[in-house]
Amino acid sequence: MNRLIxxxxxxxxxxxxxxxxxxxxxQEEIGAEDSVPQRWEKAPMAAIIMDARCYGDSIVLRxxxxxxxxxxxxYQVGVDIIRFDDTGGIDTLVTELRPxxxxxxxxxxxxKDSLANMAIGLLYGGRxxxxxxxxSAQGSMGSWLELSENQKQHLMFTMLVAEWRKDxxxxxxxxxxxxxVEEGRKYEYAVMPSYFDESGTLQIGSASKRLTNEKYVPxxxxxxxxxxxxxxxxxxxxxxxxxxxxxEIDRRMKGETEWKRLTDIPYLNMxxxxxxEGKMDCQYYDYVGDVGTYxxxxxxxxxxxxxxxxxxxxxxxxxxIEAPKAPEVIFVEIDRQDPYDLSKQVMAxxxxxxxxxxxxxxxxxxxYYNERNTKREWKELSPDLLSxxxxxxxxxxxxxxxxxxxxxxxxxxxNVSYSIPRMVSIKxxxxxxMMRNFKADASLEDGTITLSWEPDSVDDDIEYYDVLVANxxxxxxxxxxxxKHKECMFVDTVALDVNQxxxxxxxRAIDYSTNIGELTPWLxxxxxTRLKPMPPHLLRSEVDSSGxxxxxxxxxxxxxxxxxxxxxxDGEERWDTLGIYDADSIKAxxxxxxxxxxPAYNRHKDYQYAMESFSCWSVGxxxxxxxxxxxxxxxxxxxxxxxxxHYDMEKEEMVFLIDIKDRNHPMEGxxxxxxxYICIYHQNQDMRKSMFLISQPITRREIRLxxxxxxxxxTVYVKLRFKDGRESHDSNSVTVTVPASNTNPQxxx
Length: 749
What we know:
mainly beta
């Protein structure tokens, strides 16, 4: 009942006595004529639950009592509705609002209006249970519980009637519409009993709701819908209960435009809600009557007599799940090619029949079963379905043991029925085939090697498997499994302190007739080990202008996988990886790694080198001894620079433009520009040779020299200098001459 109340009336604000009193005193202070009765100041905590919804041009109030006794009292005394606005005004909208009389209902509604008649019955039908009508003894706890449940049901159905029909909500005094409102303004409403019980026998308080009159926007009804097919042409829809007290369900065939309302009366969810688990609580069963694709949509009844928006359309495909009538196996004839050699071919002929053929019947399938041979599953004996008109079938049953056979009947929807099983007697002398997909997965953590394989699909009578192991392909393979190992996998545990790279395995199958299958080829597995390999050491090193030339001696242990060469600048902590080298490739080069490194220009610090070796299981040897090698490198940086120039007639300046062609250089992206600058050299008519003029940041790519005398010239070239002492080669030289008046400027490279 509490769930239904909270479903009907979502947000509850109880109005304390002091709150109404404050409004009354405020009105008295400003001289309001409409004073509030003194009885309101004595109101206890509210026993009325209310909510409201704004529509812009109106505000709809909805309320109900907390229990049936309070609701009955409200019917007797009526309710008053008070409104406060944002200007401090207070208005009494209605007083002593009670349900319609029985005569008013009868005059206004047809006798065929079931909901109106339900409202009459709830109000005036006298259907409340009396204490002497309970199943339990009158006055007992059970009797009181029955009376309580009966009253809760009356209140629940009264609220449902008010929720399903706006007009009935008005006439059972559970709804009021205030049309004298303005959009955007703030209002507060109070609903209270018209008369208070001064005796204290049943004290009913008041309830209030604050709101801003903004137009109501219906929320999307985005529930998730699922379905299950329960039997032919019957299914169940299920969805999450969003707190609405009832729902409407529509259905149509896919492709149709018209919807059919399935619910003659709204669907009520009587399943307890468990929102923590997110259960789909609502379930609606539907019988569609035929196969096809159906579409469903769902609406919820909200507390204001309105339906929610339609849910997303949910599509259900009703398949054909009605199986055809089962066939009958008359007898099975066994034909051995050589009765004295049981390894020869064995054939079986099935004689069967089916009295009637359904329209959707597509064919037969003979099947064989042996608890040991087929691992408790039925095995199909034909690659394809037999024709619906067939009554004979012959198949090869060589290698199968005595077992049961049936003939299955299938329709177009893959529904199947089976004949009564028959036993056939066969002797098996065929050995299992070689295992397929034999593979291994080793673990360094616990030293386990997990082997797995797959039997051939024709071998369905395998009883167990043998796994054999050896440390070398030239050794004798010995049994690794104990007893009859029945799984298609085996876990072997090996020692982790063995300096050996590989271990080898084979597997074979043995069937229930003790036929021994063929061994697989050996499987080579990298053996897990925690042993550390030996670290490399430097044999020799040479330094010249082309770089640092080193020769490292590396261990040739079996477990070795790769070697890593590292470098750092003297004084740094972090190592940079220069290369990763395959161990087998180095073994082929007499275990010597020959490598040349050309590091960056460095005048001040040595370079340090070290190596580390790793096993097949990424276990490292630790760093070798660290060696320091001095290397400066070339002081020239190969950066192409192109210089161009012209004379600016308007500003009377020689203009030289610097273009750095190397777009991959860091300075082009603005990074590292603090480490580099441009040096400018020039020569004019007054100088015998070029001289340094000025330096400027790398970001400035323009040089301007003021000259106005006709015939004066400047020859300029530039170069880049780095703070670490490196520099680029000179750019090309460009000569710009001040032209005579009205002539073109002269530029010379």
